[in-house]
Write a structure and sequence with these properties.
By secondary structure, the chain is mainly alpha-helical. The protein is built from 5 helices and 3 strands.
Length: about 100
Amino acid sequence: MLTIQEVADRLRVSVRTVEREIAAGKLRAVKVRRLTRILEPELQGYISRACLSANAPTTGRSVSASVVDAVLRRLSRPAQPAPTRSRSKLLSADP
């Protein structure tokens, strides 16, 4: 049984990243009283699944490419002119 710190050291990530993976259900862990432990076979399975998904061919555009495309479209729109007061309102002011 491994601690969260040991798993983080093996994966070369932060403790918080390991906690997030556990919370997301990507890495299974067990609670021993108040302590969280990860079984060695669970860690090996997590690593093998991560390697498979990293080597899998991508189909279509990735999510990040879609986000970048949406941001670029939003930035490329012509800016709306700032509203200004009409000249008639400026000239009709009573002294």
